[in-house]
Amino acid sequence: MIDLNYVLTKFPWDEKYTKLGKPLDFFWEMELKITREEIWPYIIDTSSFNQRMGMPKMNYVEKDGKLFGSTKQAGFKMEWEEVPWEWEYLKEMNNARIYSQGFGHYVRTKYILEPYGESRSKLYVYFGWIPRNFLMKKLLNYAMPKLEADYFTAFNEIQKEIQRSTTSLQLGGTAAGLKGFFADPEWNNEEKLDLAKPELIKSGVKEEVIDSVFRWIRNSSDNDLDRIRIKYLTKLLKQSFDDLLLLFLYGSRLGIFTLSWDIVCPHCRGVRTSLQKLGDMPAKDECEVCDVQFETTGKNSIEVTFHIHPSVRKIEKQIYCAAEPNRKQHVLLSKSVAPGKAFSTELLIQPGVFRLRKQGDSRYHLVDVDDRFESKDIIWLDKEIAQEMYVHTKPTLVFQNEEPTPVTIVLEERKEDQTSLRPSELFNFPEFRDLFSEEAIATNLQLDIGLQTILFTDIVGSTRFYETEGDHGAFLQVREHFVKTYQIIKREKGVVVKTIGDAVMASFPDPVYALRASKELQEWFHTENKHTPVRIRISMHYGSCLAVNLNSNIDYFGNTINYAAKMQSHTNSGEISLSESVFRDAEARKYFLETGTKLKKIDFPISWADRTDSIYIWKP
């Protein structure tokens, strides 16, 4: 059983604040008919919870890595510095504010969660105040019992919503029960949506997709529309990713939406800079809150988001609390450890790979959690070199701060943000290249776009072909060849990056798409029906690529491209050559088995690296 004395022992007051006045401590206990896993998303989303409670909106500004807030409550102006939050997944969360104006000098809050049987939990809520004066002490003593009653009411509502499964918080949005708390939308030209619909349908966007998105826009709060994330919307509206992206790209051209390139901190995943043009991207950015500088060219440093165009609707994000744990859901532990002190806890984490680091330090330790490992302890040895730790589920973390200043330790999921739309996904979307052809990467930058399947096609015997067909006839046949090649590549989720003479360079998100496109291409250009006298060869390779600026267009660069191009010299008419990385891909191997594909393995001398690789020849 947890009581107030337990909290004050584990969470003692700092003497520098108790000198300003005697603390007022308030402590509540709630029994919940739901599990810790069910209530946790609501506890960390303190902004939505405060809104549910009828608290006033807050304004936040960031200065020198610190967060400062202000609001007006019960006729009193409140201004404060937000002390960095601390939390541990499914167990506890606490924050504090240092007031320059308000009811007190200082306030702190702590939530503690405990299991209570298999399907229930207990929540303990603590508030501690250092009142500003005698009058404010009286006011707080009067107001806190009402706040306690409001808390119980709010959590009872949440329990009912969870039991009815009517919440959208599991998708990262605002709880359905909060809809009545939001201000009415401020429209500038709502009719613009209806006027754009015929144009969108003409562009190939499905009518049911348009209706679904426009209905969501009309019924959603400013908070939901502040940054529109396509992948999140895919889950929420149960629509296809390609259909939604097509709508937002065409909608951006029609003035319904705007597209932004957001530079994201690799640690907190917060947006540091938002740009309207990709060409304005700086080489580096910084996050003062995390105390790090980072390069913007990393694979996960840029997120693409959409916004409602201000000519349609004015969007003003409504904030009711900083809600730091909710904005960093990939962070499972954030804990400040005082100089010379030790910290120990059992982590309630499931199998996976995690990063353990100090805030402000780019180095990190890898923690692999799995039931097959025997060790139950994570002993953080503060060495210069990174460690790899292999531990059983629910391991015990032990950390000793040997430094003369407080250290914040962070445990975070290593996996990528699955709801982020990355530049590479846009670059590989044909309509983006058509509609946003003016977008270009800064000439001094090279963006890491991760693994891509690069495919080259080339017309075989083009010199002789021009001689036999004549310039006019050859031109018509080559143009038809390009049109058909574009069609087939696009149908298999590929994009033509560029053409080089009679050759095409294309990119696909996965090898299996490139394989299907290659087979269809060769069947078209080498069919017995002889659709065309043009004959081609194809080569493909799978590997890491960089996106660069070439002739003011988005081009791909790197060893993967060079390798795929060199493979052409070992590929004959009607053939498809595959690199080892394509051949070894799991989905590609499955495709080969399902289609009964026969491949011939040949040597591929790599003169520039003084070695010989193997490539595989396929003739459909």
Radius of gyration: 29 Å
Global shape: elongated
Summing up helix and strand content along with how strands pair, one would put the structural category as: alpha+beta
Strand residue percentage: 25-35%
What would the average pLDDT be, to the nearest integer?
Answer: 90
Number of strands: 30
Sheet having the most strands: 12 strands, mixed
Low-confidence stretches: 166-180
The N- and C-terminal alpha carbons lie at a distance of 71 Å
Relative helix content: 25-40%
Q: Helix count?
A: 18
Provide a concise account of the structure shown.
Helix content is 31%, strand content 33%. The protein is built from 18 helices and 30 strands.
Structure overview:
The protein has 620 residues and is α+β, with helices and mostly antiparallel strands. Strands 1, 2, 3, 4, 5, 6, 7, 15, 17, 18, 20 and 22 form a 12-stranded mixed β-sheet that branches. Helix content is 31%, strand content 33%. Residues 166-180 have low confidence and may be disordered. Helix 14 (462-491) crosses helix 15. The protein has 18 helices and 30 strands.
What are the main properties of this structure?
alpha+beta; 12-stranded mixed β-sheet; 30 strands; elongated
Please render the helix and strand layout as text.
Blueprint: H1 4-10, H2 15-18, E1 24-32, H3 36-44, H4 46-52, E2 59-63, E3 66-73, E4 76-88, E5 92-101, E6 104-115, E7 121-131, H5 134-164, E8 186-187, H6 191-202, H7 207-219, H8 222-225, H9 230-237, H10 241-253, E9 257-264, E10 271-275, E11 284-287, E12 292-295, E13 302-308, E14 313-314, H11 324-327, E15 331-337, E16 342-346, E17 352-358, E18 365-369, E19 377-380, E20 388-391, E21 396-400, E22 407-413, H12 423-427, H13 430-435, E23 447-459, H14 462-491, E24 495-500, E25 503-508, H15 511-525, E26 536-550, E27 553-557, H16 559-566, E28 576-578, H17 580-584, H18 586-595, E29 600-606, E30 611-618
Parallel strand pairs: 18-20, 19-21, 26-28
Antiparallel strand pairs: 1-7, 2-3, 3-4, 4-5, 4-15, 5-6, 6-7, 8-14, 9-10, 9-13, 11-12, 15-22, 16-21, 17-18, 17-22, 23-25, 23-26, 24-25, 26-27, 28-30, 29-30
